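Researcher: Re-running this chain for the archive, since the previous output was lost when a drive failed. Same request as before.
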Amino acid sequence: MKKILALVLASLMLVSTLMLASCTKTEDADFVVGICQLMEHESLDKATDGFVAALTEALEKEGKKVTFDTQVAGGADLCSTVINTFTAKNVDLIMANATPALLAAANATSTIPVLGTSVTDYADTFSGNIPANVSGTSDAVPFDEQAQMMINTLGLVAGDKVGVIYCTNESNSLIQYEAVKALFEAEGIVVEAYTFSETTELQALVTAAADACKAIYVPSDNTVAQNDSIVGTICNEKNVPVFTSYGGAICYASLAIDYYELGVETGKMAAEILLGNKEVSDIEIATLVPTVVYNTELCNALGITVPEN
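Model: Regenerated structure tokens:
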């Protein structure tokens, strides 16, 4: 029995070793890149797609090939598990899509290059001490312009109330909430936070916000974005306009970046690092110029006039 058990254990160890080897680097690949995406939703998906496309193209031009190990964590508390598999395989680079993924990667390694994307504020995320092996792209947008856009297009005046919906588990959202709160309150507009930690709370929360507020602002919150059809359905039924920091179908208008292009810029950075042209510490964190988009169909339904300019 002991001999049989030993053979079974040996076989399992062999299978585990082979699985690990197969995930690290294929025979014809020069590099292995681990991608940890916080969760599935349109913005993060686009960033990952842009990253993969840009890095693949840049390396192919140099006659190099890359293998991607792309994992969707499914939640902030699961990012470390994903990242630990990458460090165990000693991947050549980690791309962390969203703040929790970036924090997990930075905490797990100080030697493997880490590039973040869909992260609003790197300095705030790391309390002013960004690790030397970390850089990437930011999805930060000019919050003052977003607030002014809502004031102008909705005719908001002092005393009107704007509700801000976000998940308390996302530090990016708190940064954005505090920014727009200050900007609105400078114009006498009342701002109230409607926060949640579990998605089961979202429907009741949005209903309360739509009943109490003239408009709703949603920051670049991954949890809300993953469930924003709930926000859109309730607010449309109550004729309450929604403005999101990240764009998307539920907002009547947006001043937002293109997340695919954000991923492309991150992929270009990765190519520079993998090809040995730059150290990650030499790469500045980059932002994109946002564009104005109006959902004319939704504006018409809500009675909002789209500015001619």
